[in-house]
From TrEMBL, chain A:
Pfam families: PP-binding (PF00550)
Gene3D superfamilies xrefs: ACP-like
Domain of life of the organism encoding this protein: Bacteria
Name listed for the protein in its UniProt record: Acyl carrier protein AcpXL
Keyword tags: Fatty acid biosynthesis, Fatty acid metabolism, Lipid biosynthesis, Lipid metabolism, Phosphopantetheine, Phosphoprotein
The Carrier domain, residue ranges: 2-88
Pathway(s): Glycolipid biosynthesis; KDO(2)-lipid A biosynthesis
PROSITE patterns: CARRIER, PHOSPHOPANTETHEINE
UniProtKB/TrEMBL annotation, chain B:
Lineage start: Bacteria, Pseudomonadati, Pseudomonadota, Alphaproteobacteria, Acetobacterales
InterPro entries hit by this protein: FabA_FabZ, HotDog_dom_sf
Membrane recorded as keyword: no
Alphabetic keyword roster: Lyase
Protein's organism: Plastoroseomonas hellenica
PANTHER family linked: 3-HYDROXYACYL-[ACYL-CARRIER-PROTEIN] DEHYDRATASE
Record bears the keyword Lyase: yes
Protein name: Beta-hydroxyacyl-ACP dehydratase
A Pfam family: FabA
SUPFAM superfamilies: Thioesterase/thiol ester dehydrase-isomerase
Amino acid sequence: MASAFERIADIIAENSEVKREDITPDSHVINDLGIDSLDFLDIVFAIDKAFGIKVPVEAWTQEVNAGTAPAEQYFVMKNLAARIDELVAAKQA
Amino acid sequence: MLLEYFQMIDRVVALSPEAITVCSHVPEASPVFEGHFPGHPLVPGVLLIETMAQASGYMLLARMGFARMPFLASVKEAKLRSFVAPLAELTIEASLVHEGSGYSVTSARIVSDGKRICDSELSFRVLDFPDPRLEAAMRKRAAEIGLNEVPAP
């Protein structure tokens, strides 16, 4: 099966105007790829469905806004993929 | 149904945590019909979508115990299949597709006299009430349409 990064990149390309080849592990979803909040909602919905999880976007956003976590921890592609892998593993545990 | 005041729902018929059925009666006259269209009054398609959104919204409000407010964010695969004229009786059904973090997705449709009127998948941002007056208004209108009185289907 494709890696979480590959699957998330495919989802982003399918749900936004970002070209698949422009998405790299170091891409910041918002700053580099320019995903707006509505496209991000669609992307999160697609990730929730594809991975059978509930991405805790609100908790992540609160942490970033409160300064307790850097935005890169959740919104750079390789880190986002790692967080998704963690959520999938936690669900299966 | 008072089109000009965006009161699209008359009565809740059935409610469960993941589905709602409501009904509405299209009035004989409305200022909306003066423009849409002269000599050929029809409920605008955007108001049919609003009607589906409100049915979905009341289900989500009930589900969340009015803790937060759903705001319509996207309308997908909307199909406006039949015209809706004055005096039509509408049945609106909505069901929960997915509850995410800060958003929800529903599927909704309207039928009238056994005929499919429209259907769509709707997404909502779910946010804290931005003003206590909005929460009070939503609770008041929900009580008026019997949101808390109906048994599960």
